[in-house]
Structures are given as C-alpha cells and as structure tokens.
Amino acid sequence: MHDESPEAPALHTWEFAADPYPAYAWLREHSPVHRTTLPSGVDAWLVTRYADARQALADSRLSKNPVHHCESAHAKGKVGIPGERKADLVSHLLNIDPPDHTRLRRLVSKAFTPRRVAEFAPRVSELTDRLIDAFAARGSADLIHEFAFPLPIYAICDMLGVPREDQDDFRDWAGMMIRHGGGPRGGVARSVKRMRSYLAELIHRKRADLGDDLISGLIRASDHGEHLTENEAAAMAFILLFAGFETTVNLVGNGLYALLRNGDQRARLQDSLARGETELLATGVEELLRYDGPVELATWRFATEPLTLAGVPIDVGDPVLVVLAAADRDPERFEGPDTLDLSRANNPHLGFGHGIHYCIGAPLARLEGQTALAALLRRLPDLRLAVEPEELRWRGGLIMRGLRTLPVEFGPE
Ligand code: HEM
C-alpha cells in the first residue's frame, strides 16, 4: 500500500505488519478517514476512529456487494477489484445486502444457534486436549501449526458433519489457503474449488439421510416456508468454514502471544483458572479480541450514494475499509487503550464487527478461544516464547492479523 500524504506512515512494511498500532494512532489523529492506494492499485478509504467505524459498519448506504464498485469503476474507465469475477461476487453473506442478506442470515441463524454451540463444548475440550497430548511430552512446539491452526478446522468440520476420515483433506486445503492467502493464487483457487465441491456433494448425500449436524440443520432450516437451496447451503457451509478458520487461528495465536508478553496478566489468569473461576477467562478473551484482534479490517464496503464520513466526502462506488484494529485502540473510547487489562469492563470492541453483518460465529469463536487458552495455561503452566519477539513473523495483508509461527518451550508434562 502506498500513500499520497508525505508524512503519513507507510502501511506495507514488515515493521507495520509486526506493530501497526503506532501507524493507526497517527491516522486516528491526523487523517481519520484516509485515502490510500492498496497494493492492488485500488484506491480506498480507511476509517480508524471508533465512533466513525461503528457508524460506517451500520450505514446502509455502504453496501457489501462489490458490483457497486465494479460498475462505478467501469463508468470511470477503471477496472473493478482485480482478480474478482462478477459471477462469484454475490454468493455469500459477506458479499450481499438486504433483503437477500436478511433472508439467508435468518435461515442460517435457525441452524447455527448459540445452543448448538454450547452443546458442542465437550467436543472442543476433547479436541483441544488431543492436540496438546501430541506435543506435551516434547517440551517445545509451534503453537500455530500444531495447535491454533488445526483446532478450528477440526471443530467446524465436526460441527458441520464432515466425517473424521475426510477432515485431514480440509486441513490440507485450509493450510494452502492460509499459507498462500496473499500470494500465488493457483493452489488457493484449487483448494477452494475442492472444498466447495466436497461440500456440495456432502450436502447432496445428507439430504437423503439427515442427522444432528449443522449441515443437516442448514438443510432443515425454514423460515415462512422458505428453505436454503442446495447451492445456498453449500455456499453457507463454505463461508462458515472460510470466515471461521483463519480468524480463530489468530485469536488463539495473537491471544497467546499477548499473554506471553504480559506476564502479570497471564499470572492473574492462571491464578483465576487454578481457583476454578471463569469470569476472567471470559472478559480476558474479549480483551484479547480488542487488544490485538484477528481481523485487522472489516471486509469491503462500497458507497451506493454520495455520503460524508467525519466530514470527508465519499463518492459513489468508493471502497470504504473499516479498520477494526485501529478503532479498538481509540483513546476516545477505551481508557488506556494500549494496555492489556483482562478484567476490562465496558468493552464494546469491534473485533466481531457491528450491525447486520456482526459475526454469526462469535459464540463458537469465544468457546474455542476460551477453551484453547485455558487448556494450554493449565496443562503447560510455564509456557514461554522460544525466540525473541523480533524474530517472529506476522502474515501481512491488512485484512487478517496473525503470526506465521509461535515457537514455545515448557517443562514436559
Ligand atoms: C462476520 C470476526 C470467527 C463466521 C464477521 C465479521 C467480523 C468477524 C469482524 C464482520 C465482517 C464485516 O462486517 O465486514 C470474527 C472473528 C472470529 C470469527 C474475530 C474469531 C475470533 C467466526 C467463526 C465463524 C464465523 C468461528 C463460523 C463458524 C462468520 C460469518 C460472517 C462473519 C458467516 C458473516 C456474517 C454476515 O455477513 O451476516 N466475523 N469471526 N466467524 N463471521 Fe466471523
């Protein structure tokens, strides 16, 4: 990403990827609605203050449907979002507006309920323990590859009803997507295609033999006599996997890293877990979402009519990117925003977004985050970083914020 204003911070360096917060503080103060050119060549607005971010996320004039951008870009003689094909644009929740969004979201909400997630808790604990068992005796591990990465993939596969023997395929496809997220597209496109066709076929099979799993729930869900079509159910299963995977990897990875670097907070949490309490774990995961959340900026939005944000005029078709990570460190909203305080009360962070696209997987993400952190801290109480923080590499890319690896050491179990 390069920038027009000479004093504006660089937003595409390794330093930025490792610690974007000073740059976000500059933007909040000097250019809260900031025009910038993304590496893809697309011009976009970055919104960094909490109040503006919340307002933008709830503004119905900001559409999620990229067609609005493509049409205006074509009208201005520019191309639309590079690499996106129109046919793929309107297929899932994150790319559509009401009334289609309302209909699909209502249907999925009937199947993907907080109760279904709560009932899944023992399974998440079992999965977590199995993953820790595999390295507990070794005294060292890479907690991204061996823990944070497989956990959400197996969890959502189980919940959807993907048979155990096929789940390693998903692990490989997802691995390709996370490793090459911003890089070579060929392998990623192939993995996405395989995943989608596997899910389409699974849905077809399940229709004849419904069970208790989430895919059967999606097929069964009805609202005023309406059902999801097979294609819609497949797109829904795919977006649940896709939206719930790298985000949760980063919640566990960034969360652990923040705890390892803030010894006092980690000790507080360990003491409270030893006493069998869960309150600090619950507020702590919310604080970790605020302090260094998995999603750096919310997915694209496009102006469908001219509007102003914090006094800045936005043109029809302009992309607006809400920087959740910047908003969640806004001193106007959070006291001592750069301090990690696991017991922070009054913490309406934007880590899961806001408005009609608010994360539908938040209950599952919280369950996985809380279970994973509690199990690691309980079982490996002297867990510590095996490298200097400066040696760690962050995956750049602005949308997601997460570590490539997290090497740790501990006294073997
Ligand atoms: C939407 C964050 C986990 C499924 C969102 C949005 C955010 C978000 C910020 C809104 C995006 C926008 O407005 O542009 C997170 C974080 C997670 C997480 C931080 C983990 C810590 C999950 C999980 C699932 C999931 C586990 C499903 C299994 C979805 C879906 C949407 C969504 C389907 C689209 C909802 C809609 O457009 O109505 N998530 N998410 N997410 N998330 Fe999550």
UniProtKB/TrEMBL annotation:
One of its GO terms (molecular function) is monooxygenase activity. Pfam families: p450. InterPro entries: Cyt_P450, Cyt_P450_B, Cyt_P450_CS, Cyt_P450_sf. The keyword Nucleus does not apply. It comes from the Bacteria. Keywords: Heme, Iron, Metal-binding, Monooxygenase, Oxidoreductase. Belongs to the cytochrome P450 family. This is Cytochrome P450 hydroxylase.
